What does this fold into?
Amino acid sequence: MEINTSRMPQRALGATGLTVSRIGLGLAALGRPGYINLGHADDLHHDYDFAGMERRAHAVLDAAWAGGVRYFDAARSYGAAERFLASWLASRAVAPEAAVVASKWGYTYTAGWKVEAEKHEVKDHSLPVLRRQSAESRELLGAHLDLYQIHSATLESGVLDDRAVLAELVRMREATGTRIGLSLSGPRQAETLQRAMGVVIDGRRVFDCVQATWNLLAPSAGPALQAAHGAGMGVIVKEALANGRLTARNRDAGFAAKRRLLEEEAARLHATIDALALAAVLAQPWADVVLSGAATAEQLRSNLGAPAVQWDEQAGRRLTGLGEEPREYWGTRGGMAWN
It folds into this structure.
């Protein structure tokens, strides 16, 4: 597959030695029938045939590649996301050095390919799970796997104090060259990141990268992410569209005033609401790559308008007021329905 990144800016992923496109593609909504994004069921046309979902994932990956996306992010708990990504990489003959591929361990997918399930995923950050899931990820992604992350590390899980897990992550990095990261979730993202930055083995920080939620509604982790970037960690931003709340499909009456403000700024800057929200992330000097969570090629192409948005002081000033208190934001997210 020919490489053409002229349409998409790139930059270094912290001090990892990897180069990433400013927009990446996360496969959380592409690899399984159910997810919490607004309108996810409609995006999939309520059709959950395995082969059909693989074709849909490939179509979105093709659109991403055509738009210059060279960073792809999956997880063991995203249903068949790793499998779909692996089959796309093989069928399009994408060489390992042509793209940066990341995945995560720590959650096991348990929905059984159903939209409605008692539990969609089960969290376990133990050493046996790390060893099992890292082998599964490596079997599928092979030499393409550049970054392996703890999935939703929290202070409460104790994973940052588990010396056996940390030692195994370091061993993996030394044996394979795969960079090590962690993703964050919940109202205590900043505290967890501060703790992670201090985790050192044999004089070297364990974590090369961090992936965190930051968006116009949830900006609280910004200072911690800036500090991490300043210390040489790569910074990946997820959920920049707040699981669809920062898109045109959010028709919640309680969000109407915020939506009007978004629409006004999007119109002024000749952008879609989703591209504006992604541009807000790209405007942060500490953000290396921001993930699109698109479930359709049309959504992906709209998201790819973000680098062209001329973000300015007025947008920053007016949209700062959209921010919610962390517990309010995460409470709303926790109440979103799987669909």
About this structure: The domain at 10-331 is CATH 3.20.20.100 (TIM Barrel). The first strand starts at residue 10 and ends at 12. The mean pLDDT is 96.
